[in-house]
Design brief:
single chain; 370 residues; alpha+beta; DNA Polymerase III, Chain A, domain 2; 3 domains; twelve-stranded antiparallel β-sheet; 25 strands; 44% strand
Amino acid sequence: MKATIERATLLKSLSHVQSVVERRNTIPILSNVLLEASADGAIRLMATDLDLQIVESVAAAVDQAGATTVSAHTLFDIARKLPEGSQVELAASEGKMQINAGRARFNLATLPRDDFPVIAEGELPTRFELPAQTLRQIIDKTRFAISTEETRYYLNGIFLHVSDESQPVIKAAATDGHRLARVTVPRPDGAEGMPDVIIPRKCVAELRKLLDEVDGSVEVSLSPTKIRFGLGTAVLTSKLIDGTFPDYSRVIPTGNDKILRIDPRSFEEGVDRVATIATEKTRAVKMALERDKITLSVTSPENGTAAEEVPGEYASEGFEIGFNARYLLDILGQIEGDAVEVHLADAAAPTLIRENDKASALYVLMPMRV
């Protein structure tokens, strides 16, 4: 193969595909990116880790069609260091690839294209489109709650399912057993009858990066085992987590009658300040609720104590409850409005947090003993 491509185009595309490639690989070909130059003036770049695959097509001047595979991270590092605005000439033959740009010359070892594994998608019967903005919202408001515990692998992703309530919706949920995040969006045409799926954490991370460059809609195609996202010039395909997500609706409290209304920014800043002295052992921040007065405090045997009063509307009987400061900050960081409702029951019951009853997102947080 022989082709010439702009450095900026090559770099942007490589930055998308190389992040899928694992740094440590026992199978050498998985460290490589597949480059396919076609006579119609395009280069297809592809990378995979056998569970996740990304393909992107970019414009190039192709002198000779062909395909090869070369180290993804090495090629990315070279492209990053080449002079801005340069034209990059790629020529591959006989197990080598020559890269010329300006006065720089590189010769890299290649592996045959035929050895490169491709994820077989099979049939993807469910197809619909979601606005990129909606998909970004779904990911941003839920992914912090994805579990990283490998033993409960079925929690290592975002659970997506359809539901018929007063109107048809798609719900996305993530939980690690300590907190739960759920977003509800209107169901797009074509999503009816969609199987329940769990999208893996790594796929979610790669998808989120790509979404920053998409303005319109994203094409979503899926089966019970695979999902594919069409994002303009890039296509991301992933295996789904083979497991059953727990019935999370059972942990969403419905009878919490003590309601605190508070400004999320002052609440967040107050929690952040008192949590400064918290250590790994004392991650809990204590919230003492009295009529229209909330006192946040942290007691650390090593560092001392901290307390701050924050204003809020609270009319029920007073009590004390403790939360993991980090988890509370993660949730408050997702609240966009200028008010948040905290629905409480007692010091041991799950607490519901949301902007209001019309908000698309809701959060559940388990309290800590303090």
